[in-house]
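Lab notebook, page 48
Experiment: co-folding of the full assembly
Goal: obtain a model of how the components sit together before planning crosslinking
Operator: M.T.
Materials (sequences as entered):
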Amino acid sequence: MTDKTLSSPIRDHGHHGSTWRRLPLVLALTVVVVLLSAALFAPWIAPQDPNLVSLADRLKGPSAAHWLGTDHLGRDILSRLIYGTRMSLGSVILCIALILAIAIPLGGAAGFIGGRLDQGLMRLCDGMMTFPTVVLALFLIGALGTGLVNVIIAIAISHFPFYARMVRSVVMNLRSKDYVLAARVCGAGRTRLFIDHFLPSIAAQMVVLASLDVGHMMLHVSGLSFLGLGVETPTAEWGVMISDARQFVFSQPMLIVLPGLCLLFSVMAANILGDALRDRLDPNNQTGHHH
Amino acid sequence: MLTSDISTPRTLEIRGLSVCATRRGHHIDLVRNLSLTLNTGEILALVGASGSGKSMTCAGAQGVLPPGVISPHGHVLVDGVHLAPRALRGRLVSTVLQNPRSAFNPVRTMFDHACEVRRVAAASPAGDKTAVREAFLEVGLEDADTVMDLYPFEMSGGMLQRVMIALAILSGAPFIFADEPTTDLDLIVQARILDLLSGLVARRGLGMLLVTHDMGVVARLATRVAVMEAGQIVEEAPVADIFHAPRHPATRALVAAHLKLYEGAIA
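Observation: model returned without errors.
Model output:
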């Protein structure tokens, strides 16, 4: 821990910190800030109601009234894209919250209690991790039914094993630390011990893991919505927008390209930020500061 | 109530304690049917070679054995009352560990650690700086207010060990288990920490179980000595008898090794 504290300032001032190397990070941060403000202030910045149908204006190109044109029902694309950030970011945040709510208690219990419980839980996680997350999510949606809530639940369930295993490994690593023993012989109860001495380390790992996963989850939400399993069709969501635009791919390709670009940039930004966060926070990555 | 009452003597009894490790279905006995009695106002030294089960005795009595190690038998009685191990920790028994460097959470200050102890001791308010300051001053941390805001990596091993002893005071527990409290420290700091511990026991009338394999420390501090070998207490006697009339071969070996090392001087 001492080493880490001492080495981080040295790392920051090395030749790695040149403007060119930081450019992707700066761009990613900009994208995230833009997305967040779009999601938060959508009703104020969106020029029109995203669901306002105007069949007279259908499939129009960019104009002063509709900066990015209109879709097949004459709805303003820019407004729909802006409102779409709400769905994407909101569902990802819900996914992560749900994942943490499942993974921290399960991983914590496995690491703390160990023995049969640990074996059982970890074999379950291993079993779930053998399926690609999308396949598992599709299977779960098949069982739960379609709809955004079920998509979020399915994504959370298909992703939580990775988090639970990480929580477990952090707990097992800390459990044998002298300061944890010291806290125990001081009489700290399990809850106290967990909150004071385990949660901060777990949180650091979770931030890294979650930020690397944000992009994947956005893709999952939009992908599943594209397939008609998630967000229902009138709602403004990037995946739904792409799906709706399929029939007009030759006449009005921008209908597909624009939400696709939104998705591309947000996923890239999330991944770049995740990488940067991992470089900073992950104790296992002390020397590997590279892009 | 932070200080234990000197006037009423209290006793802590460990009865029939067994500790064993389980490896692939095999049981390896680490402590076998061990009993000992610790009174307030005395320092009972638990000595023995490495691996004789000294630390496991402390951990077993407090119910903080490492994973894979269990304690199938054993009771702890305080003043004749049977108590669960977790009722001891931090309330009746405070612990001074051997490696101050790693015994503090690296991301918490000394004051945070003090609050943790005071919370368990139900001292209110837990975040009262005056009580913490007094305890820090008592263990010779002159600049108590500065020390409170320090993180473990900003301090020396000796200072950290003093804080650990201050935490033991803050807990208000009548008994201290000191598990090789000076092993990780250099000689001069060792001597000071030992003086501090013995002063504390005398002043506050604490009962201290001192785990060590350093017979110099034993000669300097202990009132009584219990010698362990292979998980059992093989000899228990006042400190003078241990050095001048050792009966068991294990005791003789420890004393002989010590005398050889220090060319005949006991302490």
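Interpretation: Residues 1-14, 287-291 of chain A have pLDDT under 50 and may be disordered.
Next step: discuss with group before ordering constructs.
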